[in-house]
């Protein structure tokens, strides 16, 4: 079961300006930050009532975020959906010939397990499936 939209991954040209807007102007709660070394990304979390905005910044020129910003400019990079059982979802997607970027779960921000689904299988949108772990 897909539970909810977990977060939207946003890649701004100016991270400080984006955080200032969402936190300072819209008064959304800053929920902290994290560096995810495996993905070469720094993430700042902005909380909405039922989900988050993740403000993404590359920590390396090899980061997918750096490549996204270079080729597409700033914008929404992905939508993340929270699911109950990521392993079952992987099998379900494979059975339905859905192209995955990740064949096995990997670590994501906020102590989660994640996979990305290739945009070719979703009509052009990068989709992340997220499984929350026990804290």
Automatic annotation (TrEMBL):
Signal peptide: none annotated. GO terms for molecular function: metal ion binding; methylmalonyl-CoA epimerase activity. This is Methylmalonyl-CoA epimerase. Keywords: Isomerase, Metal-binding. Its EC number is 5.1.99.1. It comes from Fluviispira multicolorata. GO terms for biological process: L-methylmalonyl-CoA metabolic process. Belongs to the methylmalonyl-CoA epimerase family. The gene is mce. It is an enzyme of class 5 (isomerase).
């Amino acid at each position: 079961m897909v539970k909810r939209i977990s977060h939207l991954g946003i890649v701004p040209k100016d991270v400080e300006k984006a955080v200032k807007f969402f936190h300072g102007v819209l008064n959304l709660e800053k929920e902290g930050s994290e560096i995810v070394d495996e993905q070469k990304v720094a993430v700042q979390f902005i909380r909405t009532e039922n989900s988050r905005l993740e403000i993404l910044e590359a920590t390396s020129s090899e980061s997918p975020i750096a490549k996204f910003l270079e080729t597409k400019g700033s914008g929404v990079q992905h939508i993340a959906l929270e699911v109950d059982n990521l392993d079952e979802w992987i099998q379900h997607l494979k059975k339905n010939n859905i192209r995955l970027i990740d064949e096995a779960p990997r670590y994501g921000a906020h102590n989660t397990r994640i996979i990305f689904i290739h945009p070719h299988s979703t009509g052009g949108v990068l989709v992340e499936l997220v499984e929350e772990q026990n804290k």
